[in-house]
Amino acid sequence: METRPQVVDHAPASAPAGPEILHPRMVPLGGPRAHPVRRTLPQRHRSLIGAWCFADHYGPTTIDAARAMDLPGHPHTGLQTVSWLFTGTLEHRDTIGSHALIQAGEMSLMTAGRGIAHSEYSTADTEVLHGVQLWIALPEHERFTEPRFESYAPEPVTAGDARVRVFLGSLAGSTSPVPTSTPLLGAELEIAPGSAVRLDVDPAFEHGILVDTGDISVSGVAARDAQLVYLPTGSTSLTIETADRPVRAVLLGGVPLGERIVMWWNFVGRSHEEIVEFRSQWQRQATGDHSKAGPFGRFPEQWATVLPAPELPNAQLKPRA
């Protein structure tokens, strides 16, 4: 078997120029007790919406001894993670000393930068867990920044028949104080049934509307539970129409990143060789002396175990735009 197979470029299938539906696929998340999630980003033909590079949607899941969110310590590089819950609570620990409870209606933003590791577990008092996990690709000038952790609980605002919580960027007269490395938008929308809500947006942004519950129509495209509507740049407003059920959705947006990224497992880099090095660094730290700090920080003493990295494929990982 070749250890460095030749890279052969094939033109990807062209993505539609207008609105499109991204359908979710089921993915097991975590360690021994994998938690099933619905993943809508990335897709084979669409890797990014702005700098948003990953979208997992999970629940509502009844939490018991057999089903819980159980994510032991694992690494990240070159990205930011956004946790947003509709119901339930997660306990977060990381290798820069952060310990926090992630609760419904409060965004947690973890900047991995040059490297961090964290764990997330549903708490003992969580009966139903329901939310989204999102990733943001950091641009070249920020991707090796120092890691950090912050949280923000936005106050809801009203826009017609919608209640809006803006956790990143600006929408409907509400602005999040949390800075971003590229222009971004992240907001939860709750819309009454039988409504048509118009939201003014930045025409330089592309957008994605991830439907949690309900049925919507936007720009002539219909979507429902767990589907994501992609909308290209150029629109100064979005009109979201709802059917006979209340709608909850997450609106994502941003200026196209304009950079090619390599995303594999929990790492975002720019080349195959970078990913190989990130994996090697993690494996050395994960199998070494956990009492000592490493490239991904110092493991919390509460961690009895960490996740090993999977094997790399026998092929060159290719950057995607």
Shape: globular
Mean pLDDT: 94
Number of helices: 1
Spatial extent as radius of gyration: 19 Å
Task: Determine the structural class based on helices, strands and strand pairing.
Answer: mainly beta
Q: Regarding CATH, which class?
A: Mainly Beta
Strand content: over 45%
State the fourth-level CATH superfamily. Jelly Rolls
Number of domains: 1
Strand order of the largest sheet: 1-22-19-24-17-14-13
| Topology as a string of helices (H) and strands (E) | EEEEEEEEEEEEEEEEEEEEEEEEEEH
CATH topology: Jelly Rolls
CATH architecture title: Sandwich
The biggest beta sheet, please?
Answer: 7 strands, antiparallel
Span of the ends, CA to CA? 29 Å
